[in-house]
Amino acid sequence: MSVVSAIIGTAERVPLPDVVIRAAIQRLCSRMATRLSGLGLGDDAAFAGRMMLRPIAEGAAAGHDEVPAAFFADLLGPNRKFSSCFYKTDATSLREAEEEALRQTVEHAGLTDGQAILELGCGWGSLSLWMARQFPHATVTAVAASQAQRASVEEEARRRGLLNLRVVTADMNVFAPDGQFDRIVSVEMFERMSNWRKLMTRVRSWLAPEGRFFMHVVTHRSGSHLPDPADRDDWIAQYVYTGGLMPSHHLVRQFDDIFAIEKEWCWSGTHYQRTANDWLANFDAHREAIEASLHGVHGEETALWMRRWRWFLLATSGLFGYADGTEWGVSHYRMMAAE
Question: Which Pfam families does this entry report, sorted A to Z (predicted)?
Fold first, then answer.
């Protein structure tokens, strides 16, 4: 038994100090970084080929989607952005980081008022609600992964008086929207999709002429990786990207016969590290309320799931903060249909 798996096994039974868990995460990240460091474009081509053998989506990525909205209201910032935020300065608050990330997303996607916009994987509605407010003459269609998400976003849209936002719940394996869109945007959903070629082909067919597809995805600098939840040493697979994948920054270029990259951006992993640390601070500050929310889902296993959520936050912080944010980070791509 390795040191990491021993720590995981112990932590399943009893709480461990954060310093012990962070040390185990650091060790795991070092091992992963070493393994991925030798990978390149040829490996991405092989990885993309293996993806073609899988369905578009293979189930929820980490069991997050049906956790009550109240839990995320306590955990996240005021915009309920369950994805990387962007910290302009050392003094930037979580609210400010949410808003800066949303502002950059709108800018990078090339959004303007009057467009027909589709968001794939809207989560708890941070971007969809932001777009609907910023662009009152646009029509925004948001695709939620769960009924809980849909109900929460719809309720918030009603509270804000946003009449230009429609929310649907759909399985991406069969989703087929009506009409075409000027912009299609996706924030941290494609990590949960297993067959990018099949989904991107569909996305292209949903775009209007001259339309653009924007994707925000977490990436490794050089190598694509399929986490293995059966590996007891792979804490990231078990608690961060269960059922998902970790693409390289260049993996999207394996699909350049479908989409051509018009412009791209990279965020340092330190932004996600700080995001996770702020979520962890909220988790600890609202511990009683969060425990009550989880009890409704997990019952007698609530204490275990409280620990697992802290592991998730610590692992997210450790992964993206590794090597000062130079190994794992966030990639933005604005794409147009390939000729």
Answer: CMAS
